[in-house]
Fold each of these.
Amino acid sequence: MAPATSSLFAETSTDMSRADATKRISVKTLVESPGLTSIPTNYSYSTNPNESAGSNPNEDTFPVIDFSLLTSDDPHKRSKTIQDLDRACQDWGFFMVVNHGVSESLMKEVLEGCQEFFNLPVEEKMEYAGRDIWQPIRFGTGVDVKVEKFFFWRDFLKVIVHPQFHFPNKPKGFGEVAREYCKRTREVTTELLRGISKGLGLEECYIEKKTDFDAGFQLFAVNLYPPCPQPELAIGIPAHTDHSLLTLLIENEIGGLQIQHNEEWFNVNPIPNSFLVNTGDHLEILSNGRYKSVSHRAVVNNTATRISIAVPHGPSLETAVGPAPELVDDESGRPAIYMPMKFKDYLERLLEGRPCNLDHVRVPVA
């Protein structure tokens, strides 16, 4: 599909307080327009009656994985941490990673680089505007209306960074910082996947080999959520799961991520300098449903801009991922519940404007 033109982001009427704005612009531009007191109707999100508001969990609610213990030479510490990791993937599909070895200064630098990118003049960001998910560098806002009937309260930058690294050439120095950050997150993810393989009772490098992880698809996805005058009517990103194996996320000091657990929504308040990690669709497939791809969403506020950087790590595009044979046993009542599908084909459904989730690879129940 050819990249979309700048008309996708055409400016609305100068009276930005009107709630009937019909043309799509970047949310940052919308917020910076004078007199904005309400959101345009096409940003209004109708909450499902069964969709509860997020609550604040107890301090020790979310699982925490100490990366230094996962990579320890002490077999007892490593074994205990692998058990904790396995339990976190089963019970929550989400955990925080501490003592991961990625410097706080690098994490701060990459967040600052993202802020500088969104502060670039509109015409410079528009060089990367497009709808094609295979466009290596893509700037946009909201979401494709073929899939959703309303706009998200966010602007985004999505960059394919592996197996080939791409990146905008502005702001100066941002690409070098991002390259190092993506390299380090990939190293952390590799060790997490090795621990997860062991937790599943498989050989340590099983997931790496079966997903061709060395050639795996890695995305650098930045979301900017400007202050919203009516946050109760808008949504940053609705409830969804990720298509990857694992996604590593960091944010500035503004919260907004919510995780669903046992039909309840919980606000996530990160431990400083931690990675927020969630399991994705393809880890659920590979584990034959032992691990669940966790549903999560992003809510907005009316006071401050939130920036999050999500780095999903997936199989190689040409790899068809199915349940590990070692985790399938028809005789003991553990049949395969998912059918293999190439990762590229799984993602292609996005281009076709169709929902992309686990339902279309689930084995029909007789």
Amino acid sequence: MGKYELLMVILSMDIIVSGGRFDGGGYGFVDGLRMEYYMMSCPFAEGIVKNTVNRHLQADPTLAAALVRMHFHDCFIQGCDASVLIDSTKGGKTAEKDSPANLSLRGYEIIDEAKEELENQCPGVVSCADILAMAARDAVFFAGGPVYDIPKGRKDGRRSRIEDTINLPSPALNSSELIRIFAQHGFSAQEMVALSGAHTLGVARCSSFKHRLSNFDSTHDVDPTLDAQFAQTLSKTCGGGDKSEQAFDTTKNDFDNDYFNALQRKSGVLFSDQTLYNSPRTRGIVNGYAFNQAMFFLDFQQAMVKMGLLDVKEGSNGEVRSNCRIIN
């Protein structure tokens, strides 16, 4: 990281970390959340989560993408309340994690391990929702992304239903549809593009982009927004079946701005990726992030803090689960 990028990260930390109650830095007041929420009740909470995350990511760096994705899938459904962690029960309602959109989520064992250690140290104190939010933040930093703090104090939700996952953004959405869906959660177009930059980590399965490779529409067999050579690469990937994986960019385990460079080359893997460059409404944002990684880092971390405040459960509206997979 260059001196300028480091300076931008430090400055952005001053913007985000304010101490005391968290007013969201303009993101909306959440009365019960504070940066130092566990300072007295479980002072080693953040260290335990970070050490657990780092240990797993050193063994498997691809889990960084998994943790960030899990946090997103949690927050966009019923808010950041760890509902995505709950297991389905026999004879009960099918939980979010068994939705087709969530079957490829990974990293649950990281949350379980951190929770087990925290319960040994501070029983009934640290919520699963906070563990997941901290784990996603630590995964970003481990992969080379920005360092930032987040407010803590979320409670765990008591609902997890497969039918709720219909509200997750589809990889087939265009820019206008993405702007509309994210706006329903209070995000601007720029924040939507910044959060999409999380695809600088990880891979997509063929099942999520194969529709771009044949019978795309009434006039094109292959998505015309795809670079021809990259389309061949994707077709080769799909030769291995629907579960075959294609990296979003050339540095799938590094948090950087290469994702946006790929969009400029017409090499976005998902339709919902490439549309960000094709649309005049968002192309300038993509170009800005492709040119200036520090600006992307700043906007991404601020958008992540904001996302972590979505429909937070507080007080009697939630609980602190003793096991992240089971409602108390």
Amino acid sequence: MHPTPSFPILHWIRKSQSGAFPLPSLSHQSAMSLSSFSTIPTAKLLLKTLPTSTTITPLTLHSPFLPPFRLPKHKPLSLRISTSPAISASLEAGVGIMATKLGMMSFFEDSGTVVPVTVVGFREGNIVTQIKTEATDGYSAVQVGYRRVRDRKLTKPEMGHLEKSGIIPLRHLQEFRLQSVDGFEVTQKLEFNELFKEGDLVDVSGTTIGKGFQGGIKRHNFKRGQMTHGSKSHRQLGSIGAGTTPGRVYKGKKMPGRMGGTKTKIRKLKIVKIDDELNILMIKGALPGKPGNLLRIAPAKIVGKNIPKN
């Protein structure tokens, strides 16, 4: 044990541009009360048996019982302002349209190959309702409206937004952010047979069919246990983690929960057929949602081709 000092003196040096300034001396009892509450780490307390007339400087801050102590360098308080660019929505490869899913069917190509396709129809709409520019909104985008409805189906703010441009009541409004909005005008109607042609690749977004609360087998394709041979674990989830270490369940663990009903984008789907008479598109593969679901169709984004690499 360390010997009890007879004349303890506590000095805490404040550093400034003019030099070191010792604070008033404290008694041994006061020093012990400070260190007992961990107000200042013990290593930063200097308890030495020194005459009261001794001048304490940074060079004398040492003790045979304590490791060498250096005063911390206090940095001036500064206010940092972030100069990083704001997070923004990704650019589209081109303006797109909205459509309605009708169902699926088989399409026979000229070679006889059977291709599963999703039939997509169009209701009244796909009208440019607003053009946003760098000067007015800080970014360039084209707002498109789709599916005509009655006036009483919309709120007054929605009606006022459309009446400002003299546009019919439309249920859905979506934006397509572009590099340039030159060539677009308000009330302009977008035709799908002018924007796309057979063989083009498109990105299709929509809301998937909601399945409700499902188990691990249906939601994450887990395997079940044995149904015979005395097994009592058939469709249960099983272990979800270790015991003492880490003593918790990791975030992102695949478990039972709500399945479906989320927005999904399926990329680079091929347009197989465009029928102007029936006013439909046939897109290869399955699209999100059930028949009657709203879809967003835009040109497929290919980095280096229609999207800049940076």
